[in-house]
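Database export, one record per block. Field names are fixed; values are copied verbatim from the stored entry.
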Amino acid sequence: MTASTFLLGLFAAAIVIIPASVAGIAEQLISSAAEQRQGRVIDVQEGRGPESVVWVVQLSDLHFSVHNPERALDFINIIGPVLRMINPSLVLITGDLTDGKSKDLLTMKQDEIEWLEYKSAMEDVVKRSGLDKNIFYDLRGNHDSFGVPVVGGSFDFFSNYSINGQLKRTGRVNSVTLETAKYKHLFVGLDTTMPIGLRGPTNLFGHPTDELLAELDSQLSQWDSQPGKPVIKIPFGHFPLSFSALSQSQRSLEDIFLKHSVSAYLCGHLHTRFGKNLKRHHQVSDNIRSLQKLVQFNMHHLPSDSSINCSFGATPPNEFWEWEMGDWRRSRAMRIVAIDRGHVSYIDLDFKVGLRKTIVIPTFPLDSRFMLTSSSRRKYECQHMVPSSFETVRALVFSASPILSVVVRIYDSKPGTFDMVMETEMTKISGESSRAEFYAAPWNYRAFEDPSPDRYWLQIEAIDAMQRSTVSEMRAFSIDGITAQTSWTWKEFYVMGFQWSELYYPILWSIVSLILSTLLIPKALLIFSRKQYTYRYFIAGKGFVRGILWVLLELCRLPVVWSGILGYVIYLIVCPWFLGQVFVHNEKRVYLTYMGWAVESFNQQGKHEYIGVPDVMVLVLPHLVFVILPTIFVTGGFVAERSIYREHVLSLSGKKEDDDCSQKIRTSKWYGRRWIRKVLLVVALAIYWKHFKSCRSLMKAFEMNPLIHFPVYALAIPLLLAYTIYQTRTI
């Protein structure tokens, strides 16, 4: 899932060489080529366009598929012409270039036909756009590594057909610098896919290694020792940080990004089905750091310090934005990221609603919801550092037709309605080599100072020669640098707010503890307590807890089922769950446990290591929560229902003392016709269906036979349920 920036009023991008002397040019060319092959630095010098603005394009999650050829066709027909109009400095494609899935979506491995389609589509896009192929950077996503045992091996089609592969950018970290008159803009791409690519669905997370983090740290600091121009740092990758595991030394990508105070991390992976506000602000905070390593409840991190230090050399806030973008697969999404004098902004385009003849991107002031940080307030308070940054409203305009006029309008929402308080014609600012139209309008920015970050709203309208009007999205801004609070939906919080890699084991052992408690505590009460935990005991006190306890105690009275479930849980903890095929074509199977897949190490012959953690959580946790836990309560419910039915029969026969409890049992239709049992049968069928679907998915995903490769996993729960249903059919 990322995007970056690009400069206004420029010539074609070219590789920059900063020679100490003319005699050193040849030597540096050789060195630069070597660094490119190693994934080191590619330094691009832009022609100096107006106001030192740069812009780049980000695309993500293309998922080209043999089963959905329209994805590639739309990509060629839409993206090629749009890139020609936008003319960016870089095009960043952040992973999942191909789909790697069968038509039923259950088998996940590489398909060379899809890679040939991707290569052909990219060649067509490069040709139609008129851009240099060298400015395209594509990264692996998890789909691009399904079933790839070795990077660079025969089934690693990314190395052969991707643009990075064709240009010999073989490193896991690649960087490129866009330089303007006053700024350097450093973009660093990182590939955190599994070194050993498992098949899906157990290939879901990014897995940065200590070596990758060290290389990333080095690339982000490459300009730090050189005085002069400020450096804007923007890393881009596929996985959001919530879906990125820790390294072997328990370090994270977030640690590196915070250390360097990058402006934004651009990523993909999650798609728009989880929401359109998949954004997260990260900041160092000593007070709540330990909690927010696991869960962040709000999109915006709480500021740790309200004081502003404007002295030269003062350490800026350690913070950054994480911006996940939508997918091409279904949403046909594209992002343009612009950097204007250090201010980073973006616009997300949705081509499902049609092509755009004109695109307007306000570059200043910034959106107070998604783009402002603590450093924004520092820039405002310390304007002596950027004297001309606040004096104009600025925007980039891309159009297929000549632009006749551009107007900025500002609205005041304080009265409860949007009252226009400013309307000004913007002036075009263009250099000789500019490749887009850049507009600016002077304003009295101090008139818009306000403690409310969403009082004032900005909109820019452009009218082209065909008299077509295009307006930018209305967005709030805060000239003071105060961030407007925006909340996630529950789905957005679910995928962005949790650090899943660190939560897997706590969640796993909490569920296992709950399962063991539901089995062992009632058994201990039954053995050591003198109380008679019967249906009459439940009726006497009633209450939800008493009812659950009674149901679990009744399960203990069916020792075969109780022992079977306990033994099955212990089996899942200490034994392999199944033997599966995790690579594209390899006759050797490997086994899975809750700790991952036990794969023979390619570096140390004969030694096995567990990989795919926390990725295996997508198999482990649903089985525990949606199969085993319901089975415990349903089997206990069957036994408890039989006990009630026995009471009903005895009360009718007159063999039971007639009291209030017996009268209720005797007169209730629920007991006489065994409606409770019928409801439990429906629930049992739902468990059967859920388990059947899981087994079918596993068979397809890892090419397994349930009777040979996972008999215990496949048969234990169905047999225990069937035995319980049979044993409780009569009293």
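Remark 1: Confidence is low (pLDDT under 50) at residues 1-48.
Remark 2: The first strand starts at residue 14 and ends at 15.
End of record.
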